[in-house]
Amino acid sequence: MSDRGYVNLIRHLTRTSSTLPLETIQASIAHYLARPPVPIPGSPTALTAAVLGSPLFRPYTYVKLTALAVAFRHAVHLRVAVHRAEAEQSPASILPPSRAVNVTARLAKWTRATLEGFAGSAAVIRLACASGMLLGLQDWDAELKVTEKEARVRAKVEEEVVLALAEVVDTYAREGSGWEMDFKRSLAAKGVEEDPLALAVLLASQCAQFVAPQRLQALPLPTVVDILLSTIERSYHTGTFLSQASTGVRRDVEDKLTILSKSAFAQAVRSIASSTYIASMASLARFTALSLTVLVESRRVPGWDAIGRTLARLQSLTGTVEKDWLQCPLAGVNEDSDLADDNTREIATATWQVLKTLLFTTLMVLQSILSTVVFVPGPQSTASSSASPLTPSPYAIALDALHTLSHLSFVMPQFGGVASTSEGGLPELKRAFYMALDVLSASEAEAGRFVQELCHHETMSGKGKAVETLPRVLLDAKKAFALACVEQLVPVLSEAVIQSQVYPLCYPHLWDASHRETYESAHSVMLAIFVSHAKNSGVQRPSEPAFTERILPMYAHCLVENSFDGRLSTTQLCMAYAALVRSASSFGYASAAAEGSSTNVDADSMAWFCIEALLDAIRHARAAPVKATLPYSPDAQASSSSSPPAPVTEQESFDIPSEHLHRLQLALIATVPSVSLTLLPRLLAEVKAIVVSVSLPSLAHDASARRIEEMRAELVEAIFRAVSQDVGDSEKDYAIEWWYENREELVLVKAAARHPVFDGVEASAQSHALNIVSRL
C-alpha cells in the first residue's frame, strides 16, 4: 500500500509552483528522507533525486535554497532518531555485539544512499543540500563520532560541498556573452532570481569551517575570496549608505534631530539592517578569513597577492564609510535625548548596528591576515622567483590593517576603544590592533614613517575652518587611536621623532580629561617615552641631557596637577608616578656601571626631584584642607590675581584629611619600590612622617575618626605591600628591617594635634632614632 503523503510530495515536486507553504514541503522532504516508505522506493535515493531535480526551487532564491538545506539537515536528525529507536527495540542484552544496532554505521549507509541521488543535478541545488547534510552530521559528530568511525562518508559529504561550490564558481564567475548578461540583469531587475554566486558563497560559508583544509585547497580560492569580498561590499552598499544622510535629517524647533522615515538614508539603513547577508555576515567573514589562510598556506604567492587585494578593498570600503560619517548629522549625537522621536531612534540604532557589524567583519578578516603574516613566511623571505614586485611586504600589510582600523576608529569607543583595560572591551579589536603594531615595530624605518604620518595628520586635522564643523567626539576618537598606536611604537622611535612629532601630539591632552580615552592615552604615551629612554640610556649616553630628561620636571608637576578628582584615578596616579620615578632612577645607570662608578648622582637627583614635587604637593594640600590648589596650577594662577587666600583656622587644620591629600600620600608610598638603595632610607623616613601625621585629633567626630582610621590603615597596608612584595632584591633586606623596626609606630594611636608643615618632618620624628637626611 503506497503512502499518500509521499505521493503528494512527489506531485508537488514535479510542478513549478505549489499551493502548499514552503515550510510544509520542507518538513515533508525531511520526514520522507529519514523514513522512506516501503516498497516505493525503500531508499532515500529516489526522493533525493526528485528533490534536486524539482523545478519548484527555481529560480534560485535564498529562501528556497535555505529551505532545502534545512530539510536535509533535519533529515539527518530524524534518521538518527529512527536508528536510535531501532537500537532501543533490539534485544541488545542477548545479541552478540556484531549483531547489535550500530547507529553510526546505519547513519553512514543512509548518507551514502542519499548522496547517490545528487548525480546530475544543478550545482547550486547540490550545494544547498550537501551543506545541510554536512551540518546535520556535524551536529551529531560529538556523540556518534562520524568523522572518526565513518571518515570516508564524512569526506564524501565535504567533497560534495567543495565540488558543488567549485562548479558554481566556474559557471557564474566568468563573464558571459552579451545576451546572457542581459538575461541575468533582466531576471535580477524583476526580482526573480538572486545572484547565484552570492547565494553559493553564503550557503558554503555556513559549513565551510567543518570542511577539512586539504579539501578546501581544491577550490579556486583567489576567485572565491574575490566573490566573498564583492558580496561583503554589496551588503554594505560599497560603504555609501551614509552618503545621503544630510538630506534625510532635519532639526526641529527644539534643535533635536529628526530622520525622515521615507528618506533615501532611512531606506538604505533599513535595507542593510534587514538584509539576509548582514544577518549572515559572521559566516561570510569567517569563510573569507578561512579561505585566505588556506590559500596562503597552500599557495604562498597567490595568497599574499590575495591579502593585498583584500586589504585594499577593505580600506576603500571603510574609508568611504568614514568620509560620509564626517558629514552625517548622527556623528554629533551624544545623548538619546538629542533624537526627536522613536522613528529617529530606530534608524539611529540600526545605523550603529550596521557600523558595529562592519567593524566585526573587518576584525575577523584582519585577524586571519595578521596571523598569517606572523606565522607564515612571506614570498620575499624565501627569495622565490615567482614573487611579484607588487606582492605586499609584512610591514605594508600591517600598515594597511592599521589604516583600515583607523577609518573605523569612531566606532571603537562603543567598545571602550583600543586602549581600554575594562572587561567590557572587545578582545578581537585589541588582538588585531596590537598584532598589527607588533608586525610594524619590527621595522624602525616603517614605524617611524607611520608615526610621523599619524602625527602630521592629527596636527593638520586640528587646524583650519573645517575642524569647527566636525564633531568633537569624532576628532577625539581619531586622536585616541593615533595615541594608542604611538604608545606601542615609542621603543623603536628616534629621539628626534619623539621631540618633534610625538610630544606635541600628547601635550595638549595631558590636562584635558573631557575625553577620557584621549586623556589616558596621552599619559600612557608620556610614560612609554620615559620607560623607553630609561632602557636605552645605558646603551648610548649623549654629552647633553636628552630631551626626555629635560621634560621630566614638567611631567612630574603635570602628574601632581592631575591628581585631583575627575582626572587620574588613585590607581592610575600611583602607577604613573611610580613608573616616572623608576624611569628617572634608571637614567644613565648602565653607563655609570660601564665607567666603574657605583652610583649615579644624576639619576638619583632626578628621582628625588620627582619625589620632592610630590612632597611639596602633599604639604600644600595639608595646609589648605578645604580646597587644595597647587601653586603652579592654572586655578592657582587665576585665583592669586583676584583675592588672597583665606587663612586656615585651627579647626580646619585638624579636620579630616582630604581625599586629594590621601591620593597624593598613596602615590608617594607607591614610589618606594622605584628608588635606589641610596634614596630608600630617605624616602621611607618621609613616608613614616606622613603616615604618623594622619592621627586622631582630640576634637574629631565619630565619622571623621572612622575615616581617618580607614585612611591610616590604607597607607599602612600600601607600605607593607610595597616593602614585602614590590621592592627589588637589593633593597629588600633594608626595607624589611625598616618595617619591623617601625611597624608598631605606624599603628594608629590617638595623638595630640600636630601639623606636618609647621612642625616639619624633623620635628615629627624627634622622638625616633632615625636620622632623616636633609632634602636636596
Q: Averaging pLDDT over every residue, what do you get?
A: 83
Sequence stretches where pLDDT stays below 50 over 5 or more residues: 589-599, 625-654, 749-776
What general outline do the C-alpha atoms trace?
elongated
Number of strand elements: 2
Q: What is the count of helical runs?
A: 37
Q: Which structural class is indicated by helix and strand composition?
A: mainly alpha
Percentage of residues in helical conformation = 55-70%
Share of residues in strands: under 5%
Cα radius of gyration in angstroms: 35 Å
Strand order of the largest sheet: 1-2
Largest sheet: 2 strands, antiparallel
The first-to-last residue Cα distance is: 108 Å
InterPro entries: PEX8-like
Organism: Polyporus arcularius HHB13444
Biased composition (Low complexity): 633-643
Region (Disordered): 633-653
Short description:
This protein is mainly alpha-helical and 776 residues long.
Features:
776 residues; mainly alpha; 37 helices; elongated; disordered C terminus
Explain what this protein looks like in three dimensions.
- Residues 633-643 have a biased composition (Low complexity).
- Residues 633-653 are annotated as: Disordered.
- It comes from Polyporus arcularius HHB13444.
- The chain is mostly helical and 776 residues long.
- Helix content is 65%, strand content 1%.
- The protein is built from 37 helices and 2 strands.
- The chain has a two-stranded antiparallel sheet.
- β1 (249-251) and β2 form a beta hairpin.
- α1 (4-13) packs across α2, α21 (444-461) runs parallel beside α24 and α28 (570-586) packs parallel to α33 (659-670).
- The longest helix is centred in the middle third of the chain and has 34 residues, at 342-375.
- The radius of gyration is 35 Å and the shape is elongated.
- The chain starts with a helix and ends in a 12-residue tail after the last helix.
- Residues 589-599, 625-654 and 749-776 have low confidence and may be disordered.
